[in-house]
Amino acid sequence: MKISVLGAGRWGTFIAWYLNRIGNDVTVYGRSTSESFLKLKETRSNDYVTLPESVKFSFDLDESVSEADVTVISVGAQNLRSLLQNMGEYKKQKTFVLCMKGIECDTGKRLTEVAIEEGVDKNKVAVWVGPGHIQEFVREKPNCMVIDSYSEELTKFIADSFRSDLIRFYYGDDVIGSEVGAAAKNVLGIAAGVLDGLGLETLKGALMARGAREVSRLIAAMGGNP
């Protein structure tokens, strides 16, 4: 399958490495003005992974997306809207996977909402969420993650296509819950770090119990399944 990865940061580069590892034809898109992308293109490596020669690089956004069977986006949440606005009308027919988390600050909208507002077909956009650290994946330590979308067919197609011995993908059935949970869990992570810093590790159990409940309430308030 031809896959384009938009974004060449830590996760974007890992995604390209992983999808190439499981047999896909991968192209990484980046801006010609990005020093980090230019360095990656030259060295084919960063602090975490080395990309094989079979992974291609491109400065052409339109070509990268229009020629791909699936496009995975891994950019900062606040940059998603402008990235989509720079794409042509072809995006209405293309399939996208958002491997990113967050809420758009100016609007309070989830990232799939942003994508749909900017012309992506509601039934052709999925999210890739879940735990995992690049350092562990590249050392061949497996983990489980989730693919979710508004289309059961798309969810199963992406999860089955991306599944391997390294990452087992589960089918999600609550896009709102998946997106909000992925964004909110980092708040709990920061709070856990604060407890460590204060020497109050004994409160982590309470943090996880109450924090999970509050995230569940937030998901319900935003229309998801708690």
Given helix and strand content, the structural type is: alpha/beta
| Number of extended strands | 8
What is the H level of CATH, i.e. the homologous superfamily of the largest domain? NAD(P)-binding Rossmann-like Domain
User: In order across it, which strands form the biggest sheet?
Assistant: 3-2-1-4-5-6-7-8
Brief descriptors of the model:
8 strands; 16% strand; 226 residues; single chain; Rossmann fold; eight-stranded mixed sheet; alpha/beta
Lay out the secondary structure.
Elements: E1 2-6, H1 10-21, E2 25-29, H2 35-43, E3 56-58, H3 61-66, E4 70-73, H4 80-85, E5 96-98, H5 111-117, E6 125-129, H6 134-137, E7 143-149, H7 152-162, E8 167-171, H8 175-198, H9 204-221
Helix pairs in contact: 8-9
Description of the molecule:
The protein is of the alpha/beta class. It folds into two domains: 2-173, NAD(P)-binding Rossmann-like Domain (Rossmann fold, 3-Layer(aba) Sandwich), CATH 3.40.50; 177-222. It contains nine helices and eight strands. It has helices at 10-21, 35-43, 61-66, 80-85, 111-117, 134-137, 152-162, 175-198, 204-221; strands at residues 2-6, 25-29, 56-58, 70-73, 96-98, 125-129, 143-149, 167-171. It has an eight-stranded mixed β-sheet with strand order 3-2-1-4-5-6-7-8, with helices on both faces. Helix 8 (175-198) packs antiparallel against helix 9 (204-221). The model has no long low-confidence stretch (mean pLDDT 95).
Give a concise summary.
This protein has 226 residues and is an alpha/beta fold. The protein has helices at 10-21, 35-43, 61-66, 80-85, 111-117, 134-137, 152-162, 175-198, 204-221, and strands spanning 2-6, 25-29, 56-58, 70-73, 96-98, 125-129, 143-149, 167-171.
